[in-house]
Amino acid sequence: MRIWKTDKTSLAVGTSIYAQGDALGTKQSVAVPHNGIIRGIVITDVDDEASVTVNVWMFESEPAGIAANAAFALADADLEKVFAVHLVDSDFDGINGIAKFEQTAVPYHQTDGALYFQCELEDSATPTFAATTDVKIQFFIEW
């Protein structure tokens, strides 16, 4: 078994107040092996603005995406590209921020070697992020 760690990727969050059901940042992609099983997802917030629950929507091909802090409403064409939605809600508060790690077992096949995803704020917290690069995500993949 080999584990692939993706780079930590900024969610490109906006600095306005978020609400439940908003897109947490913009659509993103990370380089991944063509086939694998997503075994873990880590989300970090270095400034500790809020302890939030996040849905990570994963797509078979690049979606149009939703603007950061807009209501998370996928277009029909993007909905057909979804292969998994994973809830990340385990909080580990630290001195400098919040880290969330969620174990998972999501198999995938991405012919172009890119994992496309976008996050959605699931809970009723109303975070305001200090900087657009504070919140990052990383995937751990068995391949």
Structure, explained:
There is one protein chain. The strands form two sheets. Strands 1, 2, 4, 7, 8 and 10 form a six-stranded antiparallel beta sheet that branches. This protein has a four-stranded antiparallel beta sheet with strand order 3-9-5-6, with no helix packed on it. It has one domain: Sandwich (Jelly Rolls). The chain has one helix at about 75-80, and strands at about 5, 10, 25-30, 35-45, 55-60, 80-90, 90-95, 100-110, 115-120, 135-140. The chain has one helix and ten strands, in the order E-E-E-E-E-H-E-E-E-E-E. It is an all-beta fold and about 140 residues long.
Blueprint of the fold:
Elements: E1 3-5, E2 9-10, E3 23-31, E4 35-45, E5 54-59, H1 76-79, E6 82-88, E7 91-93, E8 98-109, E9 114-121, E10 135-142
Antiparallel strand pairs: 1-10, 2-10, 3-9, 4-8, 4-10, 5-6, 5-9, 7-8
